[in-house]
Design goal:
Chain lengths: ~260, ~425
């Protein structure tokens, strides 16, 4: 089943690649500065986190001495979260957004979530690239530790893709799914150590946050960006299992309901 | 020889849930059984299409035509039965191909072309031809949202037919095009037909079905009601339009070996329709320019206050050549007694071109055919027109021209034809 899906997606790779490219271009199609916005926007965002929090608000990270430490911590978390939530949110509406195409052309429908994944991945690559550039300029470049990002991001993407497909399929049949996932993401964000370090949490809440499968992923991302060392590999097993489970459930749901989706649009 | 399309026992049911919660209940409760009602949009539909054949699908809105085409193209999955296809398929389903509004025509061609199974390099090679055929000018590089529906259709048709497919499926798409593009696309379809493309077309237009198709299929309420020669199926379809319950529609072979379609409430019926030539002999072949009489003999079964006899002559493609009725000719037919027979005669000069023609008759209560139709009969008479007395000409009628030529005089001047 998985092999069939992968094979179908591979046959449509031309369509997937063009779609990603066009969607990226279309976002800036009507603007004067064009794709420059693709750089200006994330640059502004990174600048806000880095400068406002560390310089203006003088926020300090416990246990770190650098003035930029909190800004780096914040960026590593928020940018990774941005990737995660973008895949889920876009996945949620991907079938509804492409209703017209689904009704008129016969193509492997699994292409649509993959386009979402690649698009979000590309946005993340741009913004994270800028962030890393900033680290390099300020002398905070984490060096070889960056390699550890690959497995961490892979787990993050698989997890988000699974949840995105589930949300997307459910949303076709029950529009409540969209509302529900919106609220879920809000809570999830605040129950993940992204804007705050784990150490400042009150004892009562800490077990909840530790049980969150995103927590080890975010902690790893932050540790990597701060150059604190390699992630705790054993802590990544639970998130990896969660991600796999999410993807299996998603593919099963997708396979069962794929034909019904078109009838419902 | 294998078929291009094989449709076997096809059925499609859409699910209807009594309320929003019942679908959730059906999904979540494993042993709760189904909680939806099925409504069949299509049921028990089977037919085959041979390579190179052109088949027209007709039927009212909601008869299941689009559902059928969607299942054949694979965008919708059938509930039961199956479809087997052989060869490359290009489909144009209802206005366009799901183009993306923000992307330009060129970008959409590139993306949807890849979904049609064309390679990127192939598309780049075909792009000038696609742009050329669509004839939408500078709009080709404008976002699709700025297009009119006709322009989107032009683009879609141009892309779908950029490479000759083995099977071309067209769902009423052509009806949004202007006359110019319709003509252009029809000639491309004809060209493909000659090269062996199989055609499956949905249309409400009798002329395009009869001009393009070898066979027609009539769908009614999700079922295949009639299949056969386009002319006969279209006659039945038109009778169905006047009488949705088809209680009174009959199709039967008459003495001439012609399938006649009759419908109506039956208070009066046609006994015979005949054509007499100048000598008074009954014939089925008239000469161009000959004076003929067409006689419609009808019988009245109950007392009727008024009756109007209508006649329509159509050519072999169903083009209407001439039609008129007794009311418009100021022949009142009133106070008819039950059991009586009457003959309505029309004397005219046969100025039609060579070919064969059919006569449709209508016995109605008043001038308007929708008011009450006692009997409507397609192909009540088939006759031929042959040309013996006049020079050979083409077209559907003889205009009796008088020809002359003004040669230049000695000074090289030609007399002004208007005489001024």
């Amino acid at each position: 089943m998985l092999i069939q899906l992968i094979r179908a997606a591979w046959r449509s790779r031309g369509f997937i690649v063009s779609s990603v490219r066009r969607e990226f271009a279309a976002r800036y199609g009507n603007s004067l500065l064009g794709s420059a916005w693709a750089v200006i926007n994330p640059l502004a965002m990174v600048a806000v986190y880095m400068l406002i929090f560390s310089q203006v608000m003088q926020a300090r990270l416990p246990g770190e001495t650098g003035t930029l430490a909190y800004g780096i911590f914040l960026c590593a978390g928020i940018l990774s979260w941005g990737l995660f939530s973008e895949i889920i949110q876009r996945g949620m509406t991907v079938f509804l957004d492409h209703a017209n195409l689904l009704k008129k052309m016969n193509f492997p429908r699994i292409c649509l979530p993959l386009i979402v994944l690649l698009n979000a991945g590309m946005n993340f690559a741009i913004i994270y690239g800028l962030f890393l550039l900033l680290l390099l300029v300020t002398g905070n470049f984490p060096g070889a530790y960056l390699l550890a990002m690959l497995p961490v991001l892979a787990i993050l993407c698989v997890f988000a893709l699974g949840l995105g497909i589930v949300a997307g399929v459910l949303n076709v049949f029950f529009r409540d799914a969209g509302q529900f996932f919106g609220i879920l993401l809000q809570f999830w964000f605040w129950f993940t150590p992204i804007v705050y370090p784990l150490s400042i949490l009150p004892e009562a809440i800490r077990p909840i946050v530790l049980a969150n499968p995103l927590t080890p992923l975010m902690l790893s991302q932050q540790a990597i960006a701060l150059g604190q060392g390699w992630p705790q590999w054993s802590a990544l097993v639970a998130p990896a299992l969660c991600a796999t489970l999410a993807l299996v459930v998603a593919l099963a749901l997708f396979r069962r309901r794929a034909d019904e989706i078109v009838d419902e649009l | 020889m294998s078929h291009t399309v094989e449709v076997i026992g096809l059925g499609k049911a859409y699910r209807h849930y009594p309320n929003r919660w019942s679908r959730l209940a059906e999904w979540l409760l494993p042993f709760g059984g189904p909680r939806h009602q099925q409504s069949w949009a299509l049921r028990d539909v089977s037919f085959t299409v041979s390579p190179g054949e052109a088949v027209g699908i007709v039927g009212f809105n909601g008869a299941g035509k689009s559902t059928l085409l969607r299942i054949i193209t694979g965008t919708t999955r059938a509930t039961e039965g199956e479809v087997r296809l052989h060869g490359r398929v290009a489909a144009l389903l209802e206005l366009g191909m799901g183009f993306h509004g923000e992307f330009t025509g060129r970008q959409n061609v590139m993306m949807n072309g890849q979904l049609l199974g064309l390679e990127r390099a192939e598309l780049e090679e075909l792009m000038p031809a696609i742009e050329d055929f669509a004839e939408i000018g500078a709009y080709f590089d404008e976002p699709l949202r700025t297009y009119s529906s006709g322009m989107a259709m032009r683009l879609a048709f141009s892309l779908a037919t950029a490479r000759r497919p083995e099977l071309l499926i067209v769902d009423e798409a052509l009806s949004v095009g202007d006359a110019y593009f319709q003509h252009k696309s029809f000639s491309r379809i004809r060209e493909f037909r000659e090269q062996g493309t199989t055609l499956l077309i949905v249309s409400h237009d009798r002329l395009s079905i009869q001009a393009l198709c070898d066979r027609a299929i009539l769908l009614h309420e999700g079922r295949l009601l009639r299949e056969g020669e386009p002319e006969i199926v279209m006659d039945f379809y038109h009778a169905l339009m006047a009488d949705r319950t088809f209680a009174h529609i009959r199709q039967e072979l008459n003495a001439q070996g012609v399938v006649q379609t009759t419908s109506g409430t039956g208070e009066a019926t046609i006994v015979s329709v005949t054509l007499q030539n100048a000598g008074g002999a009954t014939t089925d072949a008239a000469k161009v320019g000959e004076e003929v009489v067409m006689s419609v003999r009808f019988r009245v079964h109950v007392d009727l206050p008024t009756l109007v006899v209508g006649l329509m002559i159509k050519d072999r493609l169903g083009h209407e050549m001439f039609g008129i009725n007794s009311h418009r000719l100021s022949i009142p037919i009133e106070n008819l007694a039950a059991g009586s027979e009457h003959v309505f005669r029309l004397r005219f000069v046969m100025n039609l071109g060579e070919g064969h023609y059919s006569v449709t008759t209508a016995l109605t209560r008043s001038d308007a055919h929708v008011d009450r139709t006692y009997e409507w009969r397609d192909r009540a008479l088939i006759f031929y027109v042959i040309n013996v007395a006049h020079p050979r000409f083409v077209g559907c009628n003889w205009l009796a021209p008088v020809a002359s030529l003004d040669a230049p005089d000695a000074a090289g001047r030609v007399a002004d034809a208007t005489g001024s």
